[in-house]
Amino acid sequence: MLSKVLEIAKTIILKFTLITISLVVLFTGILFPTQSALSLEKSNSTIANLSSLSWKPIDGIPQGAQVAVLNGNTTKGASEVMIRLPAGYTFPHHSHSSREVLFLSEGEITYIADDGNKQKLPANSYLDLPSGTKHSVLCGQNPCLVFARYEQPFDLILSPAPKTKS
């Protein structure tokens, strides 16, 4: 009888040890990835310091707005950019062939829809505009900084501004 109890105890201890070793190996791989996993992760990452970006004017609109590419290629496919607008700047009425995702990180803007309705948006506002959405933007009393993502090559299709509503 005692030998049977010892046999069962050995089996339980052996299973517990195997499970413990398996869990340690699994969690060590998750919590402390190998160098190759870190390298792979770094190769797909983009890290940018906004103060060292290469800012360029945006062609086809009044001088003042600037753009800096963070990721992608604006002429060939998807891209992510930062857009800088001086205080009081009006970005002309326009649309894009691509969906446009915007995040206002600094400043305050007035978003003007194609029907003339206006909406004031403070810093930390998010906009997701389907392709072809006509709109314009008025930057408030302080400079504005906007993150923008486009799923297709960047284009700027200018259109007449609507009569604005209060």
TrEMBL record:
Name used for this protein in its record: ChrR-like cupin domain-containing protein
Pfam family, one: Cupin_7
Keyword Membrane tagged: yes
Top-level lineage group: Bacteria
Keywords from the UniProt entry: Membrane, Transmembrane, Transmembrane helix
InterPro entries on file: ChrR-like_cupin_dom, RmlC-like_jellyroll, RmlC_Cupin_sf
Transmembrane annotation, as ranges: 12-32
Organism in which the protein naturally occurs: Mastigocoleus testarum BC008
The ChrR-like cupin domain, residue ranges: 46-149
SUPFAM superfamilies cross-referenced by the UniProt entry: RmlC-like cupins (SSF51182)
